[in-house]
Amino acid sequence: MDAESRILIIDDEEVVLDSCTQILNGSGVDIATAMDGTRGLMLVQEFHPDLVVVDLKMPGLSGFEVLEKTMALDPTIVPIVITGYATVSSAVEAMKRGAYDFLPKPFTPDEFRLIIRRGLEKRRLVLETIALRREREMLRENFAAIVSHELKTPLSAIQQNLFAMEAELERHLGDAQKNRLERMKSRVDDLLKLIHTWLQVITADTEKLKETFEPVSVVTVITKAVESIQPQAVRMDVEIVTSIGEPLSPVYGHEGSLVQAVLNILSNAVKYCHAGSQVRVGVEEAASTIRLCVEDSGVGISKEDLPFIFNDFYRGKSGQVVDRGCGLGLAITRRIIEAHQGSISVESEPGKGSTFVISVPALKLDAATQSPLNAPVMANSQKGGVG
Amino acid sequence: MNQGKRLLIIDDDPDFVEGIRSILEAGHYEVDAAYNPKDGFHALETKHYDLLMLDIMMGRGAEGVMVAQKVAKDPKLKGMPVLIVTGIRELMAFLFPWESLDAHLMPGDEVLEKPIKPQLLLEKVSALLQQAEARTVRATQAN
Questions:
Q1: Cβ B90–A196 below 8 Å, yes or no?
Q2: What pLDDT, in 10s, does the model give residues A195-227?
Q3: If you average pLDDT over residues B111-134, what whole number do you get?
Q4: How far is A359 from chain B, CA to nearest CA, in Å?
Q5: pTM of the model
């Protein structure tokens, strides 16, 4: 047994305390005893036990009360109850209230040793889990800082010097050389953007995002997203057709991140579309839900990829023509939509195209009428179209 | 027209500074560089500068913020325009590319993210210098 483990035994019978102490003597554990619940709870705070063994039947504070108060004081302590009249019901009750295990009286030294060993093992696992969680949190935070400084700093310096050299060498470089310089800049820029995206995923604090929520016009979100993707669509000869149903309620959210979410979907749709085809964006409201559809007739997603596409760092595996991308766009989209109490789903058939559906709760009209945003929202949507 | 305008860069990455220096010198500015806050202060105390370009993430953390605060408090330096140059965006959760950094640091000064396109750099520097000049003219007229 762990040499530093501390065990607190609470029992009103001195003979039990003595025999328990004797059984554990020499096994390297630190033992404290209490003859009643009140004294026991004091020791929970002073002695900081790993394990508390408590008799259920005691005068004064009952074992159940001691159990509950101990767990309130420190939920990581492993409590074990001693049931005097080994009734199954009191043992079950104790386990329900959070006891880790129970020991029916009378018990043999071996039974006691075994249960203590198991309890300490449990305690070790509990503490280890807590430590690992904390470590993971720290890693997550530190990783962001490390990535930002160690990767971005040299890349920024390289890019800044490429900018400078381009200007310095303006009159000395041939077209082919200028072209290569241009490509170097664009590759470094891709890397910087990639790091940004990773950081967004790693550090994205959706709880913080929720603090910024306000009524947002769905039409504005779609308009902005479509505007941002338009140049890319024109380059790829893809037409974006928007249809907006009935007057729409606003949603409660963060406009910038909602635009980003829609933009990621649109960008994928345009990327995987065949030249000359259309991407259809439709939005409608039904049953207090705003439902946004993005439909393309592109390469589609294979059945084996479909379940994973909203996961972090996932890229299609099944031989699609995949453009540069880090496999994070859809994961970010999912997180943004989930932060808005919404959901995202996809239907797709390889070779025929994909349909992404984003659903977010509509902001109730009575709440919205008090908002100055309501009027422009209604006015916009009655025009019935975007760009 | 920028002749005689003297700029100080405080940034702990000499390679980055060279990239910036080349662009500014091509824009006919005089450029000095300090690679840590201490040398930066020494330069500010011993020489006159028309503008300070300041990196935020230096040394063991955001030491640039301390420099900016000290400059803002110093009676001789506080009118000086400061161009904050940083890669700090990543430290702020959920800041999207179109969101401004300005609001998050200090009022009045401009913030640019590394790396900086030459044209944008020259525009910002020139705009800050003009604003500072306009302030000085107004102050003189007021007296």
A1: yes
A2: 776 676 666 666 667 777 889 999 999 988 898
A3: 91
A4: 22
A5: 0.53
